[in-house]
């Protein structure tokens, strides 16, 4: 695997880094305290083609590869995880299912506006009783007079209630199958629900510990009717398809984790070089320098892990294990670096106006979202041949 970025990849890194430095960073504290997704910044991201990075030009995309998306997400996450996850989820969970499994008509209708950042989409998977155990899904859908009639509820759905949300892909039980042993298995399918649709209710946003500007809502579906043609992919393949989406999404999520970890390194280095105590900067103390060196090692390890997963993805090789390893390593690196950066910053690290404080609040969800650390360990163990 070549770990050197191409000129094109480096250009993306440089351009997004400049955007983060000049546009995102100066405004981050203000919209974090307001707990709002800054649509003006999302619009600029769309104008720069960030939402269309991995999609073909014919669908309004940039025709780049998945690593390009990951590199953009990493740069955003250095300063603001909420903005980074808006892009990561908007592409990986919102638009990518339509691109991977949609019909030509579905792609033509939804992908151009999603790729241009003119609209956002959510992925309605999680429920109160169906988190890590997605097979426990209770939301159901039946066909009636050429329409799907959907009833149920979803939780923790990103990008589901923004002013430009135009679509949520819903997982629902659409029937039952009998196994050879006589047991019953739920048939899960995915269905596209445009917004607004009668009976589709976006409930009030959550009051979260972190990710204050990320749009996250519970959803209620009461006799929601959409055309039968809104089935996404084959009926009964919803479970298999969303697993593929999650595997791919974890690579970009690992990039987000890496950006958060690196952002903590950047802040710790800057502070340690300028904070003077007893006549010298605190970075001259070996204890502090070594702590930051370990932070840098974590960030680099996380970066190499998601590069490796992206490399296999691009090559068309199995990458499930590598994606889970990258997500596990990256989320732990982000959480550990956030704790160490806050300690180095001392009392200032406890003030929300500083980036390290936001990383300290934001990073815990990285060990939970898009598959908990325990789920990643389970996947890795299974890929190694263990049943546990």
UniProtKB/TrEMBL annotation:
<dbReference type="Pfam" id="PF02770">
    <property type="entry name" value="Acyl-CoA_dh_M"/>
</dbReference>
<feature type="domain" description="Acyl-CoA dehydrogenase/oxidase C-terminal">
    <location>
        <begin position="236"/>
        <end position="384"/>
    </location>
</feature>
<dbReference type="InterPro" id="IPR006089">
    <property type="entry name" value="Acyl-CoA_DH_CS"/>
</dbReference>
<dbReference type="InterPro" id="IPR013786">
    <property type="entry name" value="AcylCoA_DH/ox_N"/>
</dbReference>
<feature type="domain" description="Acyl-CoA oxidase/dehydrogenase middle">
    <location>
        <begin position="123"/>
        <end position="224"/>
    </location>
</feature>
<dbReference type="InterPro" id="IPR036250">
    <property type="entry name" value="AcylCo_DH-like_C"/>
</dbReference>
<dbReference type="InterPro" id="IPR009100">
    <property type="entry name" value="AcylCoA_DH/oxidase_NM_dom_sf"/>
</dbReference>
<keyword id="KW-0560">Oxidoreductase</keyword>
<dbReference type="Pfam" id="PF02771">
    <property type="entry name" value="Acyl-CoA_dh_N"/>
</dbReference>
<feature type="domain" description="Acyl-CoA dehydrogenase/oxidase N-terminal">
    <location>
        <begin position="6"/>
        <end position="118"/>
    </location>
</feature>
<comment type="similarity">
    <text>Belongs to the acyl-CoA dehydrogenase family.</text>
</comment>
<protein>
    <submittedName>
        <fullName>Acyl-CoA dehydrogenase</fullName>
    </submittedName>
</protein>
<dbReference type="Pfam" id="PF00441">
    <property type="entry name" value="Acyl-CoA_dh_1"/>
</dbReference>
<keyword id="KW-0274">FAD</keyword>
<dbReference type="InterPro" id="IPR046373">
    <property type="entry name" value="Acyl-CoA_Oxase/DH_mid-dom_sf"/>
</dbReference>
<dbReference type="GO" id="GO:0003995">
    <property type="term" value="F:acyl-CoA dehydrogenase activity"/>
</dbReference>
<keyword id="KW-0285">Flavoprotein</keyword>
<dbReference type="InterPro" id="IPR037069">
    <property type="entry name" value="AcylCoA_DH/ox_N_sf"/>
</dbReference>
<dbReference type="InterPro" id="IPR009075">
    <property type="entry name" value="AcylCo_DH/oxidase_C"/>
</dbReference>
<dbReference type="InterPro" id="IPR006091">
    <property type="entry name" value="Acyl-CoA_Oxase/DH_mid-dom"/>
</dbReference>
<dbReference type="GO" id="GO:0050660">
    <property type="term" value="F:flavin adenine dinucleotide binding"/>
</dbReference>
């Amino acid at each position: 695997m070549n770990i050197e970025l191409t000129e094109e990849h480096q250009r993306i890194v440089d351009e997004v880094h400049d955007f983060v430095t000049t546009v995102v960073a100066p405004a981050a504290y203000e919209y974090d305290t307001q707990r709002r997704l800054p649509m003006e910044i999302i619009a600029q991201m769309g104008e720069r083609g960030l939402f269309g990075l991995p999609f073909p030009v014919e669908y309004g995309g940039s025709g780049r590869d998945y690593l390009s998306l990951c590199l953009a997400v990493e740069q955003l996450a250095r300063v603001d995880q909420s903005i980074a996850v808006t892009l990561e989820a908007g592409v990986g969970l919102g638009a990518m299912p339509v691109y991977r499994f949609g019909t030509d008509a579905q792609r033509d209708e939804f992908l151009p506006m999603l790729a241009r950042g003119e609209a956002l989409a959510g992925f309605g998977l999680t429920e109160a009783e169906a988190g890590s155990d997605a097979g426990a899904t209770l939301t159901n859908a039946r066909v009636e007079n050429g329409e799907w009639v959907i009833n149920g509820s979803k939780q923790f759905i990103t990008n589901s209630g923004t002013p430009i949300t135009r679509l949520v892909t819903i997982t629902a039980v659409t029937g039952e199958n009998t196994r050879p042993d006589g047991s019953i298995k739920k048939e899960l399918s995915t269905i596209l629900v445009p917004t607004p649709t009668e009976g589709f209710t976006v409930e009030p946003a959550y009051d979260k510990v972190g990710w204050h500007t990320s749009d996250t809502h519970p959803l209620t579906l009461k006799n929601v009717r959409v055309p039968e043609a809104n089935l996404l992919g084959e009926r009964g393949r919803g479970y298999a398809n969303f697993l593929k989406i999650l595997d791919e999404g974890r690579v970009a999520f690992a990039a987000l984790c890496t950006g958060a970890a690196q952002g903590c390194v950047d802040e710790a280095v800057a502070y340690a070089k300028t904070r003077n105590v007893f006549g010298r900067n605190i970075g001259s103390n070996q204890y502090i320098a070594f702590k930051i060196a370990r932070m840098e090692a974590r960030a680099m390890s996380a970066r190499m892990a998601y590069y490796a997963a992206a490399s296999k993805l691009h090559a068309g090789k199995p990458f499930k294990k590598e994606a889970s390893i990258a997500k596990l390593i990256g989320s732990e690196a982000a959480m550990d670096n956030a704790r160490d950066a806050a300690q180095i910053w001392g009392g200032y690290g406890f003030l929300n106006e500083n980036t390290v404080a936001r990383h300290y609040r934001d990073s815990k969800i990285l060990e939970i979202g898009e598959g908990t650390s325990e789920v990643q360990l389970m996947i890795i163990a299974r890929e190694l041949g263990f049943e546990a």
